[in-house]
Protein backbone atom coordinates (compact mmCIF):
# COMPACT_ATOMS: atom_id res chain seq x y z
CA UNK A 1 0.00 0.00 0.00
CA UNK A 2 1.42 3.44 -0.82
CA UNK A 3 2.08 5.88 1.98
CA UNK A 4 -0.36 8.68 2.71
CA UNK A 5 2.26 11.19 1.56
CA UNK A 6 2.74 9.46 -1.81
CA UNK A 7 -1.01 9.38 -2.35
CA UNK A 8 -1.46 13.05 -1.37
CA UNK A 9 1.38 14.13 -3.66
CA UNK A 10 -0.06 12.31 -6.65
CA UNK A 11 -3.53 13.74 -6.07
CA UNK A 12 -2.13 17.28 -5.68
CA UNK A 13 0.02 16.88 -8.81
CA UNK A 14 -2.90 15.59 -10.89
CA UNK A 15 -5.26 18.34 -9.75
CA UNK A 16 -2.55 20.91 -10.33
CA UNK A 17 -1.91 19.78 -13.91
CA UNK A 18 -5.51 19.09 -14.91
CA UNK A 19 -7.38 21.87 -13.13
CA UNK A 20 -5.26 24.54 -11.50
CA UNK A 21 -2.58 25.16 -14.13
CA UNK A 22 -5.20 25.81 -16.86
CA UNK A 23 -7.12 28.04 -14.46
CA UNK A 24 -3.92 29.91 -13.62
CA UNK A 25 -3.37 30.54 -17.34
CA UNK A 26 -6.93 31.73 -17.87
CA UNK A 27 -6.85 34.02 -14.83
CA UNK A 28 -3.38 35.43 -15.62
CA UNK A 29 -1.83 34.28 -12.35
CA UNK A 30 -4.58 35.63 -10.10
CA UNK A 31 -3.94 35.17 -6.36
CA UNK A 32 -7.15 33.14 -6.16
CA UNK A 33 -5.38 30.22 -7.82
CA UNK A 34 -2.70 30.23 -5.10
CA UNK A 35 -5.48 30.03 -2.51
CA UNK A 36 -7.06 27.15 -4.43
CA UNK A 37 -3.71 25.30 -4.46
CA UNK A 38 -3.66 25.54 -0.66
CA UNK A 39 -7.24 24.23 -0.41
CA UNK A 40 -6.47 21.38 -2.83
CA UNK A 41 -3.50 20.27 -0.70
CA UNK A 42 -5.67 20.22 2.44
CA UNK A 43 -8.50 18.37 0.68
CA UNK A 44 -6.05 15.90 -0.90
CA UNK A 45 -5.02 14.93 2.61
CA UNK A 46 -8.64 14.40 3.60
CA UNK A 47 -9.31 12.32 0.46
CA UNK A 48 -6.20 10.22 1.10
CA UNK A 49 -7.30 9.68 4.70
CA UNK A 50 -10.75 8.59 3.52
CA UNK A 51 -9.33 6.20 0.91
CA UNK A 52 -6.91 4.68 3.42
CA UNK A 53 -9.31 4.66 6.38
CA UNK A 54 -11.48 1.91 7.81
CA UNK A 55 -14.79 3.13 6.37
CA UNK A 56 -15.24 1.25 3.07
CA UNK A 57 -18.14 3.43 1.97
CA UNK A 58 -16.18 6.66 2.51
CA UNK A 59 -13.14 5.15 0.76
CA UNK A 60 -15.16 4.13 -2.29
CA UNK A 61 -16.94 7.49 -2.41
CA UNK A 62 -13.65 9.44 -2.30
CA UNK A 63 -11.94 7.19 -4.86
CA UNK A 64 -14.83 7.27 -7.32
CA UNK A 65 -15.19 11.07 -7.03
CA UNK A 66 -11.48 11.57 -7.68
CA UNK A 67 -11.36 9.19 -10.63
CA UNK A 68 -14.49 10.74 -12.18
CA UNK A 69 -13.06 14.26 -11.74
CA UNK A 70 -9.50 13.53 -12.82
CA UNK A 71 -10.35 11.26 -15.74
CA UNK A 72 -13.56 12.57 -17.31
CA UNK A 73 -14.71 11.21 -20.62
CA UNK A 74 -17.53 9.84 -22.67
CA UNK A 75 -16.27 6.28 -22.34
CA UNK A 76 -15.83 4.14 -19.24
CA UNK A 77 -12.65 4.69 -17.24
CA UNK A 78 -9.96 2.44 -18.72
CA UNK A 79 -6.52 3.58 -17.58
CA UNK A 80 -3.27 2.32 -19.07
CA UNK A 81 -1.80 -0.66 -17.22
CA UNK A 82 0.97 1.50 -15.70
CA UNK A 83 -1.66 3.61 -13.90
CA UNK A 84 -2.36 0.71 -11.54
CA UNK A 85 1.24 1.00 -10.27
CA UNK A 86 0.77 4.60 -9.15
CA UNK A 87 -0.16 5.43 -5.55
CA UNK A 88 -3.71 6.37 -6.63
CA UNK A 89 -4.04 3.29 -8.84
CA UNK A 90 -2.86 0.94 -6.08
CA UNK A 91 -5.21 2.55 -3.58
CA UNK A 92 -8.20 2.43 -5.93
CA UNK A 93 -7.48 -1.23 -6.74
CA UNK A 94 -7.49 -2.13 -3.03
CA UNK A 95 -10.50 -0.08 -2.01
CA UNK A 96 -12.76 -0.20 -5.09
CA UNK A 97 -11.34 -2.75 -7.49
CA UNK A 98 -11.94 -1.30 -10.93
CA UNK A 99 -14.27 1.70 -10.56
CA UNK A 100 -15.91 1.24 -13.98
CA UNK A 101 -15.81 -2.48 -14.74
CA UNK A 102 -17.37 -5.60 -13.30
CA UNK A 103 -14.68 -7.71 -14.96
CA UNK A 104 -11.15 -6.99 -16.13
CA UNK A 105 -8.76 -8.63 -18.58
CA UNK A 106 -5.95 -10.86 -17.33
CA UNK A 107 -3.51 -8.06 -18.21
CA UNK A 108 -5.45 -5.50 -16.16
CA UNK A 109 -5.88 -7.94 -13.27
CA UNK A 110 -2.13 -8.54 -13.36
CA UNK A 111 -1.40 -4.81 -13.34
CA UNK A 112 -3.79 -4.33 -10.43
CA UNK A 113 -2.17 -7.21 -8.52
CA UNK A 114 1.37 -6.23 -9.45
CA UNK A 115 2.01 -9.53 -11.24
CA UNK A 116 2.21 -10.73 -14.82
CA UNK A 117 -0.68 -11.80 -17.00
CA UNK A 118 0.73 -15.34 -16.76
CA UNK A 119 0.65 -15.01 -12.97
CA UNK A 120 -3.07 -14.25 -13.16
CA UNK A 121 -3.58 -17.28 -15.41
CA UNK A 122 -1.72 -19.44 -12.88
CA UNK A 123 -3.84 -18.13 -9.98
CA UNK A 124 -6.99 -18.99 -11.92
CA UNK A 125 -5.65 -22.42 -12.83
CA UNK A 126 -4.88 -23.11 -9.14
CA UNK A 127 -8.33 -21.91 -8.06
CA UNK A 128 -6.94 -18.89 -6.19
CA UNK A 129 -8.72 -16.38 -8.42
CA UNK A 130 -12.08 -16.94 -10.15
CA UNK A 131 -12.68 -16.58 -13.84
CA UNK A 132 -15.56 -14.31 -14.87
CA UNK A 133 -18.23 -16.16 -16.88
CA UNK A 134 -17.91 -13.58 -19.68
CA UNK A 135 -14.11 -13.75 -19.74
CA UNK A 136 -11.40 -12.13 -17.69
CA UNK A 137 -11.51 -11.84 -13.92
CA UNK A 138 -14.15 -10.27 -11.64
CA UNK A 139 -12.81 -6.87 -10.55
CA UNK A 140 -14.18 -7.49 -7.05
CA UNK A 141 -12.11 -10.70 -6.81
CA UNK A 142 -8.96 -8.75 -7.63
CA UNK A 143 -9.86 -6.20 -4.95
CA UNK A 144 -10.58 -8.94 -2.42
CA UNK A 145 -7.27 -10.65 -3.17
CA UNK A 146 -5.40 -7.40 -2.61
CA UNK A 147 -7.19 -6.86 0.69
CA UNK A 148 -6.46 -10.40 1.83
CA UNK A 149 -2.81 -10.01 0.85
CA UNK A 150 -2.62 -6.76 2.82
CA UNK A 151 -4.18 -8.47 5.81
CA UNK A 152 -1.54 -11.19 5.61
CA UNK A 153 -4.05 -13.97 5.10
CA UNK A 154 -2.36 -15.57 2.08
CA UNK A 155 -0.23 -17.76 4.36
CA UNK A 156 3.06 -16.87 2.71
CA UNK A 157 1.83 -17.44 -0.83
CA UNK A 158 3.81 -15.61 -3.48
CA UNK A 159 1.78 -14.06 -6.31
CA UNK A 160 4.46 -13.15 -8.82
CA UNK A 161 5.03 -16.52 -10.43
Task: Give an overview in words.
- The model is unreliable at 154-161 (pLDDT under 50).
- The chain is built from seven helices and two strands; from the N terminus they run ααααβααβα.
- Helix 1 (4-26) runs antiparallel to helix 2, helix 2 runs antiparallel to helix 3 (56-70) and helix 3 (56-70) packs across helix 4 (87-95).
- It has 161 residues and is an all-alpha fold.
Element layout with pairings:
Layout: H1 4-26, H2 31-52, H3 56-70, H4 87-95, E1 103-104, H5 106-113, H6 117-125, E2 137-138, H7 139-150
Antiparallel strand pairs: 1-2
Residue share in helix: 55-70%
DSSP E strands, number: 2
What is the number of helices? Answer: 7
Average of per-residue pLDDT values: 91
Shape by Cα distribution: elongated
Looking across the biggest beta sheet, what order are the strands in? 1-2
Given helix and strand content, the structural type is: mainly alpha
Give the amount of beta strand, in percent: under 5%
SSE arrangement, N to C = HHHHEHHEH
